[in-house]
Amino acid sequence: DNFIMLQAFMAVIVCYSFPLIGDLPLFNSRGFIYMLVLHIGITEALYYSIHRLFHSEYLFSRYHSLHHASAVPQSFT
């Protein structure tokens, strides 16, 4: 659920930050390249930054350690 919520949150931010994004051709190679660049440049960078934040002493001990203690590790926890 966290991953899906992050993707929805990022989509809203991108749509409001770049109002012309609605004019991008989403179903051809040019649109695919634009979306790939936006995804890698924004979403992945934010996801990495948030995950690094979870490794801070405060958040790790109170929340993120549960993810690392899981018997079945999942990237979405």
Distance between the termini: 8 Å
SSE-based structural type = mainly alpha
Helix content: over 70%
Main pleated-sheet profile:
none
Radius of gyration: 16 Å
Individual helix count: 3
Average pLDDT score: 82
Unreliable spans? none
Overall shape: elongated
Keywords: Membrane, Transmembrane, Transmembrane helix
InterPro entries: Sterol_Desaturase_Related (IPR050307)
Transmembrane segments: 6-24, 31-50
Organism: Nymphaea colorata
Question: Can you walk through the features of this model?
Answer:
There is one protein chain. The protein is mainly alpha-helical and 77 residues long. Helices cover 71% and strands 0% of the residues. It is built from three helices and no strands. 0% of the residues are buried. The chain crosses the membrane at residues 6-24, 31-50.
